[in-house]
Amino acid sequence: MSTTTEAVAEPTVPRPHPIRAARLAFRGWRRTRPFWAGVWTMLGGTIIAYVPGTAFKLMLVANSSLVIGVVVGIVIAAFGLMLWFLRPLRIPLGVLILLLSLASFFTSDFGGLLLGMVLALVGGSLAIAWVPAKVTWRERRRIRALSRMQPPAARDGGAGAPPPPDGPEGM
């Protein structure tokens, strides 16, 4: 009999291609926030700000209504960006986006030639209507199964040592 021992290789989890992994990560990020509401709002705010901004090139003296139109468009676009990162404020931001886009009809050359106003109205409406998805029991079970498949070193942050015991006796 031979006294040599064979090393048993641990099964490795196949890694997805980096582009696919980035796409899946972006999909996960996008699905946890009012993404399309932010896109339409920023696009509408940009158009609302751009239309009166073209009048600065044609006139030598800037009228105060031109400045207000540009500021309203920039604020709407900023609110669209805030929708992505301040999810709990989606309803107040959506209401403000709707009010400012209606006000842009008077401040920004008919709301950015109506196109910017309509896009911002759609974005504000989507922001109010969006609700976060609830995690189903199947998704929780899948996440638990994936966490069990990871090696112990990856689960506890790579430390390798067991976590300290809880309670006053661990201090």
Notes on the protein architecture:
- This protein has helices at residues 18-30, 35-58, 64-85, 90-107, 109-113, 115-129, 137-149, 152-155.
- It has 171 residues and is an all-alpha fold.
- α2 (35-58) runs antiparallel to α3 and α4 runs antiparallel to α6 (115-129).
- The protein starts with 17 loop residues before the first helix and ends in a 16-residue tail after the last helix.
Helix-strand layout with pairing:
Blueprint lengths: L17 H13 L4 H24 L5 H22 L4 H18 L1 H5 L1 H15 L7 H13 L2 H4 L16
Helix pairs in contact: 2-3, 2-6, 3-4, 4-6
Short description:
The chain is mainly α. The chain has eight helices and no strands.
Largest sheet: none
Question: What's the quaternary structure here?
Answer: single chain
Radius of gyration: 26 Å
In angstroms, what separates the terminal alpha carbons? 51 Å
Using DSSP, what is the number of strands? 0
Structural class, from helix and strand content?
mainly alpha
Q: Tell me the fraction of residues in β-strands, as a range.
A: under 5%
Order of helices and strands: HHHHHHHH
Shape label: elongated
Low-confidence stretches: none
Helix content class: 55-70%
Number of helices: 8
Mean pLDDT: 81
